[in-house]
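Appendix B, Record 12. Input sequence as logged:
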Amino acid sequence: MEFNIKTPKLTVVGAGPGDVELITLKAIKAIESADVILYDALINEELLNYASKETEIIFVGKRKGCYAYQQEQINELIVSRAKSHGHVVRLKGGDPFIFGRGAEEIDYARQFNIETYVVPGVSSSFAVPAYQGIPLTKRGASESFWVITGTTKSHQLSNDVVLAAKSTATVVILMGMGKLSEIVEIFKSQNKHEMAVAVIQNGTTKNEKVGFGTINNIEKVVEENQLSSPAIIIIGDVVKERVALSSVLHEIKARKID
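Logged structural output:
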């Protein structure tokens, strides 16, 4: 009698920023081969259609501050399902190694001799601005960019925002909507009241909403446009480049329709 014993395996997969087509071929292959998929709230659930009908699919994300599972429970779920089912795919929004706790989950799984793999994803930190025609770097406008979490493990605003505000770099802040007032004050303290700002909610999806302004008025813009999480904050002169690039993008889309 033969027993089909599968090797316990974890693949941490980046699902991209929201647009279902912004997924890598390697990620699709991982989803197709999964015995179990543990997925987060910010992924496009259309991606689950690539899974086999036999695949066990479990939502482990967070919505409006409510956790389906705590991180420790997710770690344990990864190990138990890998041992009982075989290939576990941990499907995470954006790129799993950019504020995604992917490294933590891999470290935990390795303690139990589980094979681990990573499939990088298209990060929302650069894809979402790009969809709005905002280049994070551009000669004459920005030589570099910072990607910073708006809320640290201790639920405080990262001190890196203070350092970034002193630089000439483009600043991209993820998970920072709850700290927007603090962010604004930091940039004002550097006399950057007129610095351009974009806030993009649900970027690259059909529910995308945007607001453009300056450090001086962005809070009012956010209120008027009813913008909230999940959203990305982009601060820097490159935001002004959107007008020229967006017109080009509209022309390209028009040609496709014709």
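The CA atoms of residues 125 and 185 lie 22 Å apart.
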